[in-house]
Amino acid sequence: MAQGDIxxxxxxxxxxxxxxxxxxxxxxxxxxxxxxxxxxxxxxAIVTKSITLQPREGHPPPRLVEVRAGMLNxxxxxxxxxxxxxxxxxxxxxxxxxxxxxNVAGSTPExxxxxxxxxxxxxxxxxxxxxxxxxxxxxxxxxxxxxPEPLAALVEAVREKVTRATLIVKLSPNVTDIAVTxxxxxxxxxxxxxxxxxxxxxxIDPWTGRPALTNTxxxxxxxxxxxxxIYMIRRVWEEVAGPRHLPVIGLGGVQFAEDVIEFLRxxxxxxxxxxxxxxxxxxxxxxxxxxxxxxxxxxxxSARDLVGRMQRGGET
Amino acid sequence: xxxxxxxxxxxxxxxxxxxxxxxxxAGSDYVRLVLGAPDDWxxxxxxxxxxxxxxxxxxxxxxxxxxLDYEDGGEWPxxxxxxxxxxxxxxxxxxxxxxxxxRRGRVRVEILVRPVGSxxxxxxxxxxxxxxxxxxxxxxxxxxxxDDRLAVLVxxxxxxxxxxxxxxxxxxxxxxxxxxxxxxxxxQVPMRFKRPPEATGDVARPCPTILEPHVPVPTVLAxxxxxxxxxxxxxxxxxxxxxxxxxxxxxxxxxxxxxxxxRALAALAERRRAPCQVSLEQFMGCGIGVCLSCVRKMRDxxxxxxxxxxxxxxxxxxxxxxxxxxx
Lengths: 316, 327
Ligand SMILES: Cc1cc2nc3c(=O)[nH]c(=O)nc-3n(C[C@H](O)[C@H](O)[C@H](O)COP(=O)(O)OP(=O)(O)OC[C@H]3O[C@@H](n4cnc5c(N)ncnc54)[C@H](O)[C@@H]3O)c2cc1C
Ligand SMILES: Cc1cc2nc3c(=O)[nH]c(=O)nc-3n(C[C@H](O)[C@H](O)[C@H](O)COP(=O)(O)O)c2cc1C
Ligand code: FES
Hints:
The structure holds 2 protein chains of 2 kinds. Chain A is an alpha/beta fold. Chain A has 8 helices and 16 strands. The longest helix of chain A is centred in the last third of the chain and has 19 residues, at 226-244. In chain A, 54% of the residues are buried. Chain B has 2 domains: 14-138, Beta Barrel (Elongation Factor Tu (Ef-tu), domain 3); 150-323, 3-Layer(aba) Sandwich (Rossmann fold). An 8-stranded mixed β-sheet of chain B has the order 11-14-13-9-8-15-16-19, with helices on both faces. A 7-stranded antiparallel β-sheet of chain B has the order 4-3-7-1-2-6-5. The site of FE2/S2 (inorganic) cluster has 12 residues of chain B, from loops.
């Protein structure tokens, strides 16, 4: 099949992506830096760094360490805050022909609701992605996303205010069964799910005994977590997303075009690329070309046709 | 921090392959790599490259022994114990300062590599003809003194790389400068000498026997063991030089090297009420300002707490020493 005949377009809620490649939250800033390396308009979507109601400085360094086959980070949600995001960062992104998905974080349900309501009313916000891997200060710091009830309550509260933008819930992998939280988010009104956020991890300097991160605990990302992400996406696709036709944005270790194809087969409609941007700032555009080539090799005319298409275990 | 990162005369950041045109050992601790760059490449002293590295081919110790030794009845070369663990495959790029830029004829960019771990060991072993996957030029740069004051360039140990390029740059601008380089011993100075530099004790004076590289300004050597040049640190040598040769002339300090050295230099600058720019090092995830990992605390009168975090890769690595909140 000729590469020119291939349709890379995919649909996530009301967001029409020209290809299944997006940046991942926290790994492409607000787009302006990556725009120095390529036209952001070539991507399927941009997902911003988490935005909170107030600006945040983030954790003291070291915030990021390299581990074998991955990175461990505890950035601490450093961001410019809602007001500056709306005044400066969002207008700058409007120059590019690319849907903008704004990732939102908070420490109380009220904070999430306030930020989401403002974003839903703003021009140029195609989607809102809820980062639910944040500690809920009202529940003794338990993360919003690790138990189905508080997660459902949060998503319902936000859903009430988000009437225009596509609402995506970004699931935490730090749970016993991700299908349970996926179902809670879907029942509460999510238009799409994204998974996975980082896996909890820790590193200790063997010689000094000091934790490698000032925050001690961090989130593991990169190639190391890809098989976990594939498994969880498959599980969610089979239990929740497939039967309900709910789009999934897959992420966790995507670096090469083969990875994208693997994520689509597992059940993702699109992928987000995080850590791989650090290795090569051009990763995302390279993936767009690579996926087109890959689909041509497979003789598949549309990226949509590959979603969930996997052989049963043991089949030949 | 000074913010000239997007100076109009610096070429845009990009990812590119750079061939290794020349490779030389420089002192016992360093390897100098000369890389080919495109004609439109312009970088400024202080800027850096982010280089994709692989894992060290062999541990340094194992590479000394060759398989031939086995045929000779020797031991089969094999990394053992802790050595094996050092062969990690780096995930992200490694930041390396641009040591020099030569735009006469084919554009050449020079880096000075100190092999300390897997990535830099791999890099230091790249032969002539290999290509490197590089992102750059990144970061901001040193700003020349505002007036005709004397520039005092202080480089110590690892991290002195950009000082060479700064010396070239100031000399090209016709500014007067002196370069003070410090190392534990002469062998660790990234220079070659016509004959061993003479020990000068507590006298700081330019070293006349430098063979390579050519530094266009007087160069004072300081060693901790005192076997060559001034006995003591680079900052002590700089202070001595100023007392001996400069007296009251206004100066501007520029520093590159380990953190304690930069702190000592900042203190010296404060005592002499002189401006001081230093190049900072911080672990870097991306080098381009998207991961927010490389923060340093900088004074910020506009903030409630008096400081703010700035990105070393984008707002730095060069900072005004007076802005740094040392920790
Ligand atoms: C802006 C900047 C400019 C630099 N310029 C140069 C240069 O011109 N020449 C040069 O040789 N090195 C330079 N460095 C340091 C160099 O980047 C590190 O030595 C390198 O990242 C280590 O990688 P590795 O895989 O070899 O070692 P790793 O296996 O990652 O680490 C080995 C050891 O090196 C230390 N190390 C790791 N990262 C750094 C770092 N960023 N700074 C200091 N020590 C580190 C670790 O503590 C560890 O003990 C620079 C760093 C920065 C931030
Ligand atoms: C440095 C860094 C910062 C991140 N910041 C955020 C964030 O602000 N909000 C969020 O939802 N996820 C954040 N993430 C998680 C990523 O979006 C992504 O879920 C995770 O890194 C897995 O993808 P990857 O393996 O492709 O990096 C961050 C990840 C990294 C490495
Ligand atoms: S290294 Fe990523 S922001 Fe500086």
